[in-house]
Amino acid sequence: VQLVESGGGLIQSGGSLTLSCATSGFRFSLYAMSWYRQSPGRERELVAGINSAGGITNYADSVKARFTISRNNAEEMVYLQMNGLEVEDTAVYYCSVRVFGQTFWGQGTQVTVSS
Predict the structure, then answer these.
(1) Rounded to the nearest 5 degrees, what angle is found at the Cα of 55, between the Cα atoms of 50 and 56?
(2) What is the CA angle 66-71-73, rounded to 5?
(3) Residue spans of beta strands (DSSP E) within the chain
(4) Which of 44, 22, 42 is nearest to 33 (CA)?
(5) Is there a contact between 12 and 65 (Cβ–Cβ < 8 Å)?
(6) In this predicted structure, what is the pLDDT of residue 53?
(7) CA-CA distance, 7 to 113, in Å (whole number)?
(8) 34 near 52, Cβ under 8 Å?
(9) Which residues 6+ apart lie within 8 Å of 14 measured at CB?
(10) Three-state DSSP class for 72?
(11) Closest Cα partner for 87 from 106, 64, 114?
(12) Residue ranges of the chain with per-residue pLDDT less than 70
């Protein structure tokens, strides 16, 4: 299983970014996918999740109405559209999947929001 995130960067408060996660090594269309984030001194937290077909999503309260998770099963990609970014959204963002009882993570992509 390989997960490779991209799309992070430095952005001003109120701006938008779209993160991408390229996947391989498993039957992507069969598995739910998630985005997590971790900022210094804090535990890794779930940001958003999406079911295998893409019809069901869930979000952390802190990002609802601002972030949108989506997936393309044909291209085996998962995305996180982030709008209205806030300084508190600064973190390393990770793509994640649980396959056969094991959780896999990408290397993460840094998102830094400046005021």
Answers:
(1) 50
(2) 175
(3) 2-6, 9-12, 17-24, 33-38, 45-50, 57-59, 67-72, 77-82, 91-99, 102-105, 109-114
(4) 22
(5) no
(6) 97
(7) 13
(8) no
(9) 84, 85
(10) strand
(11) 114
(12) none
pLDDT score recorded for residue 75: 98
d(CA 57, CA 85): 20
Structure tokens at 22: 């390229």
β 57-59/2-6 pair status: unpaired
The pLDDT tens digits for 53-75 are: 999 999 999 999 999 999 999 99
> Token pair of 13, please?
């408060």
Burial profile 81-95: b = 16 or more Cβ within 10 angstroms, e = fewer = ebeebeeebbbbbbb
Q: How far apart are CA 78 and CA 48, in angstroms?
A: 11
